[in-house]
Amino acid sequence: MKESDSLVIHLKIIEQLEPLRLRIPREKEEVYRKATDSINTAIKEYRKKFPVTPSGVILSMVAINFAVSSLQASTNKDIDPLLVGLQKLNAELQTYLNEEISK
C-alpha cells in the first residue's frame, strides 16, 4: 500500500488508556470508525450488565460476540448462492408441474 493511499488514524477503545494508532487504506476510514463505535457500544452494554467484571473479561466477551457475528455472516454468504439456485430450480419445477397439470 502506497503511503498516499493510506491514512494514519487514532481510534479510542473505551477500556484502553491510549488510542490505537493504525495505518489504513483511505477508503476504509469510515468502516474503521464505525467498527470502533460498535465496539465501544458493546463495551458499554456489557459494562452495564457486569459492572464489577474486569476490563479484560469485558473485552473478551465483546471479541467473542463480534467473532460469532462475523462467522454467522460468513456462513450466510456461503449459503446465499445455493438458496438462489434452489429458488430458480423450484420455480422451474413449478412451471413444469403447472404445464403438466394443464394438459
Please tell me about this protein's structure:
The structure is a single chain. The chain is mainly alpha-helical and 103 residues long. The protein has one domain. The chain contains two helices and two strands. The chain has helices spanning 29-49, 55-102, and strands at residues 6-11, 20-25. A two-stranded antiparallel ribbon has the order 1-2.
Tag the structure with descriptive keywords.
single chain; about 100 residues; mainly alpha; two-stranded antiparallel ribbon; about 10% strand
Low-pLDDT segments, ≥5 res: none
**On the 0-100 scale, what is the average pLDDT?**
87
What's the domain count? 1
Oligomer: single chain
What's the shape?
A: elongated
Give the helices and strands as they follow along the chain: EEHH
Q: Characterize the biggest β-sheet.
A: 2 strands, antiparallel
Major beta sheet, strand line-up: 1-2
Per DSSP E runs of 2 or more residues, the count of β-strands stands at 2
Strand content: 5-15%
Count of DSSP-assigned helices? 2
Helix-and-strand structural type = mainly alpha
